[in-house]
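Figure 2 data, in text form.
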Amino acid sequence: MNAKRERAAALLLGVLCCSLSPVLLAAAADASSPAKATTYQVEIRNFAFAPRTLTVPAGTRVVWTNRDDEPHVIASAGGAFAGSHALDTSDSYAITFAKPGTYAYYCSIHPMMVGTIIVQ
């Protein structure tokens, strides 16, 4: 009688494991999926970056959008990231900041325009 109960218990356990495994696998896949990067906006308006200083978590995507009638070029002050092409009115440029640090930048056409991204 014990052997029958053991086989029944093993069979039941096998059925439960097989029926739960897709759920467990899906949960594991969701937990290991990379999170979508948060996006922050910097507007270029009246020959200034707004906000001028932006503090973001690592993995953040920063998008600059030109709202001026003149072109602007985003350039890294220390060469820490690739610069943009000339952004005409309503053009955007984006960088994802993966590593913590302070990233100073400016407009290479109008060097008095400066900004800072602080990545934590």
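Caption note: The chain has two domains: 1-33, 39-119.
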